[in-house]
Amino acid sequence: MNTLKIFRFYFLLLAVLFSSCCVKENAIVAHRGAWKKNNLPENSIAALRHAIDLKLPGSEFDVWRTVDDSLVINHDAHYNKLLIEETTYADLIKYKLSNGEKLPTLHEYIKEGKTNNKQTLLVCEIKPSEISKERGKKTALMAVETIKKLKADKNTCYISFDYEILKQIRTVDAKTSLQYLEGNKSPKEVKADHINGVDYHYSVFRKHPEWIKEAKENKIILNAWTVNEAADMDWIIDHKFNYITTNEPELLNERLKVKK
Question: What does the alpha-carbon distance between residue 178 and residue 160 come to, in Å, rounded to a whole number?
Answer without folding.
Answer: 8
